[in-house]
Specification:
mainly beta
């Protein structure tokens, strides 16, 4: 089955699964909203160009339901100063993460820039 995927630097996907990270911060917005059933792929290396790839692990399915401008006030309230190397900059957006479904086991796959397509055959998620 084909999934839309988003790669995120470690340890962010683990923090999302654990409920400690409730939004993703990006310098761009997706072409359509909301984004449902997005596969989160955790990887180790920052991808700087559209051609960059890294080895990653698909770890969860999520929905991104709301998008807004990331403000310096929000940055300070979130206590992100010096966390994960995050520094506030104007022109970034917050993506609200909801409906987090952890995969029963991580699946190796490619990490790429932007929203990209991954084909996986055996994916199962934990259910409550």
């Amino acid at each position: 089955m084909k999934y839309q995927a988003l790669s995120i630097l470690q340890p962010a996907v683990v923090l999302i699964i654990d409920g400690k990270k409730k939004q993703e911060i990006r310098s761009w917005l997706p072409p359509s909203l909301p984004l449902k059933n997005i596969l989160l792929v955790q990887n180790e290396n920052y991808l700087s160009s559209d051609d960059d790839e890294d080895e990653g692990l698909a770890m969860a399915l999520v929905d991104f339901t709301e998008f807004s401008n990331w403000t310096e006030e929000e940055y300070l309230q979130q206590g992100l100063k010096n966390t994960l190397g995050r520094v506030w900059k104007p022109g970034y957006y917050t993506w609200k993460i909801e409906n987090i479904r952890k995969l029963m086991k991580p699946i190796p796959c490619k990490a790429k820039k932007g929203i990209y397509e991954v084909e996986l055959t055996d994916i199962s998620v934990f259910t409550d």
